[in-house]
Amino acid sequence: MSDFRLLPDLARRDVGGAVVSANDEAFATRENLITPGPAVFDPSTFGPKGKVYDGWETRRRREPGHDEAVVRLGAPGVVRGIVVDTAWFTGNYPPEAAVDGLAGDTWVPLVARSPIKGDTENAFDVQCDDRITHVRLRIFPDGGVARLRVHGVAKPDPALLAALGSVDLAAIENGGRVTACSNLFYSSPQNLLLPGPARSMGEGWETARRRDDGNDWVELALAGPAVVRVAELDTSWFLHNAPGSASLQGRLSDASPWEPLLPRTPLEPDTRHRFVLPGAGPVTQVRMDVFPDGGMARLRLHGSFVPQA
């Protein structure tokens, strides 16, 4: 993927992230930094502390220094990009920001102190291969940030996965990720791999209506080489726009041919479908085709790693 923003956001609240500390949140609470979805703005909302912002905002500094907030990633992993989103902050955004990551017990730089713009998704590529568990956002000297997005690939504890045995091989928290898809008109396909059930149609993956003879699809990289034994295709909340049918294929590498895992199978709307798969060989990639288009809430691929994984 050329755009790191297509990778999962490891810090989102619905992945398990949390803002564990902030030195100041006088105007707007720190927890807003990791709220899923874009920040919203209502010009009419004022509270006891002034204008209500959907973000994190600190007071005006009257002495040297900077403000900072620390986020525990919901899925520790390798960070490939950071977005410091200052949406709706126009006269009160910080002119500069920096981001560090906690690798073990050491803070390492992810984004050097850099200029940022107001009301903008300020995107930064990250060149660091360490496993990061927390990130620290520093703003200079003060101001407001709407969202902090930490895009990357989860790197779970191998001992935990081994102890669990059968796991969801596609889950973001276990290292699964979407690598390609045909259409993301309404929502990101990474939503398919989020923890827990979808709470609305907006928390799934939905494509535009097709007006041709083709179909939509999504490709995944699993957490590692594994045998997939049960597939769960969940169309919850999609009442009149679920796919009519779906199929699954798997392969071991980019050079390997796609092999069938689940033949094209009819689907019901607003339903959690579970399919026991035949004993196919190990795969590292899975492709789901939906016919012809529509929405899916979650995709679970339960199985176990092969010994070399």
UniProtKB/TrEMBL annotation:
Annotated Pfam families: Allantoicase
Which GO molecular function annotations are given, in alphabetical order? allantoicase activity
State its Enzyme Commission number(s).
Answer: 3.5.3.4
Pathway linked to the protein: Nitrogen metabolism; (S)-allantoin degradation; (S)-ureidoglycolate from allantoate (aminidohydrolase route): step 1/1
Source organism, top-level taxon? Bacteria
Domain Allantoicase stretches? 16-153, 175-305
Q: What class of enzyme is it?
A: hydrolase
What is this protein's record name? Probable allantoicase
Q: Which organism is it from?
A: Pseudonocardia dioxanivorans (strain ATCC 55486 / DSM 44775 / JCM 13855 / CB1190)
Gene (UniProt): alc
